[in-house]
Amino acid sequence: AQTVTQSQPEMSVQEAETVTLSCTYDTSESDYYLFWYKQPPSRQMILVIRQEAYKQQNATENRFSVNFQKAAKSFSLKISDSQLGDAAMYFCAYRRGETSGSRLTFGEGTQLTVNP
Amino acid sequence: KAGVTQTPRYLIKTRGQQVTLSCSPISGHRSVSWYQQTPGQGLQFLFEYFSETQRNKGNFPGRFSGRQFSNSRSEMNVSTLELGDSALYLCASSLVPTGNKGYTFGSGTRLTVV
How far is residue A61's CA from residue A34's CA, in Å, rounded to a whole number? Predict the structure, then answer.
């Protein structure tokens, strides 16, 4: 079974600084997708960024980028120029390849605090 | 474009009762998945529906069931509620199950069992 581990229950960062959230996963599959979701107090899970395992290039979305190390099974999220609105719980998630449906396996989450 | 709508937002039920939660996906989305979120177990997959058919089911007892209607709206039902069923229940939708662009989640239904 696939597992996703986020070893940092809590992280904090100063506004405008950069922070990196860690995520490791375990799978024997070669075709899969990885996601970072953000859950603010409003409870809605918001997709931050996604990465296809077959792509070597790291995904980026504005201030958010990932460091995808397939051999090490590592998928960290870097938030640059942190803003107060980035404060939330962040979840790393894994999904098997194309034919495997939509089941997401989530990590335990990292609570990010942004200090003004 | 309306997002994923879950109703009700909050619910309080008594142990032993049953409950039905509703999820309306984004217009045009035909895949709906359900997750249970608790402080102790985190986010766990319940089931997935596509075109009114259950495609995947997580490791939950038979008291948890669901269905999807022809308009893609989905309901999940929990019978004989237990205190441990208290959780945030999240619904996610996508065009098709293999939603490569990710899944859009609703704001959830907070269920409290007393």
Answer: 14
Residues forming beta bridges with residue A106, ordered by sequence position? A93
pLDDT, mean of residues B86-114? 88
Q: How far apart are the C-alpha atoms of A24 and A3, rounded to whole Å?
A: 8
- Using CB atoms and an 8 Å cut-off, which of residues 66-95 of chain B contact chain A? 88, 90, 92, 94
Pairing state between β B19-24 and B5-7: antiparallel
- Measured CA to CA, the distance from residue B100 to residue A97 in angstroms comes to 9
Cβ atoms within 10 Å, residue B89:
23
- Write out the DSSP string of A9-55: SEEEEETTS-EEE--EEE-S-SSEEEEEEEE-TT---EEEEEEETT-
Alpha-carbon distance B73 to B7, whole Å?
A: 11
Q: What's the confidence (pLDDT) of residue B99?
A: 61
In the structure encoding, which two tokens stand for residue A96, read together?
A: 């098997």
Task: Evaluate whether A88 touches A39 at the Cβ level (below 8 Å).
Answer: yes
Q: How far does chain B reach from its first CA to its final CA, in angstroms?
A: 37
Residues 22-61 of chain A whose Cβ lies under 8 A from any Cβ of chain B: 33, 35, 37, 42-47, 50, 52
**What would the mean pLDDT of B86-108 be, rounded to a whole number?**
86
Token reading at B111: 């269920």
Tokens at residue A76, please?
Answer: 């960290």
Q: What does the pLDDT average to over A44-54?
A: 92
